[in-house]
Amino acid sequence: MLWILSVLLDIIVALKLDSIDRSVSRVNNTTYKNLEALVSKDSYSLVKTKDLGEFHSKSKCTLLSCLVKKKSIFNEEHINLLEIREAYTGFKTGDGSAKIWKKIWEISNEDPLLPTLVSGLQFSILTHLSSFHKKFFGTYFPNPTLFGKRFQDKHRLNFYLTYLLVRNCVGSITIGEREMDEGLSIITQTIKSQGSTDWVKQSVDLEKTIQRVEEMARLLKHINCEKCQLWGTIQLNGLRAALKVFSGSTNLERLERFFLINLFMRLSVSVRENIKLRRYRIPLLVTASLYWVEILSFVTSLMAIFLMSRIRNKFKSRIALKSCM
């Protein structure tokens, strides 16, 4: 069944990229595999819950997809990001999250740089929610209809600007001997070899911008979804670290590097996935397939229950027959 669906998806996909997509995708491919290998290491995938700060709002989401699995390592609570994909959770935005995002936008609009970066982050979030929408037998299926409904080209361009800024910041960080063994040096050297973009910093108070990002991160901790709180905290702290490098402070603390690299990974995934989502000729057909998968799962479950019931009834009948004899 999964093979048939994958073939169907291939048939209804059409490759249509513009020059910006091709350029950013080509650059992204030069670091993607090394970055993916880096974030698979414990030093960039395991985070202590205390390092994320206190979440002011306990998750009220009852969906399992909203919850974050935690584990104890050396008597300290950790979260393994490899086990928690940034994906669609089913969490509804009506439970206060829309108001929180409205406040975030109010803060960003006070800054000359943040509207572009927040727009880029939201585009990346939308890409993840649409690309990894439904999970079936361990495989995620996309929802290109959701993506197309919310897609705006200006947000795509802002996303690419955000990606390139974060990428340049990663290439500018100072690393020590320990990081040399973790593969970070390969990534930074690759980025440096490609040259950097000369960003215009005039009339931008980066210290004030960083303070506004910190305020946004505090606001996101009030969203009633653990997974949303987790990835929001990581990515906004990653943005804060990027802006710190952007301001000229290239020596980052361990936790700042952790946040920055994980933000870079999420944006790198979005570079690939947003292109895939826009390539579908018939997005409604792909979206409909999501529900066929659910229907198949439901029917299979009913059949299993029915068969178990039949077997149990036969077993009871035999026991009753033996007791009569």
From TrEMBL:
Keywords: Disulfide bond, Electron transport, Endoplasmic reticulum, FAD, Flavoprotein, Glycoprotein, Membrane, Oxidoreductase, Redox-active center, Signal, Transmembrane, Transmembrane helix, Transport. GO terms for molecular function: FAD binding; protein-disulfide reductase activity; thiol oxidase activity. GO terms for biological process: protein folding in endoplasmic reticulum. It comes from the Eukaryota. Its cofactor is FAD. It is a peripheral membrane protein. Belongs to the EROs family. May function both as a monomer and a homodimer. This is Endoplasmic reticulum membrane-associated oxidoreductin.
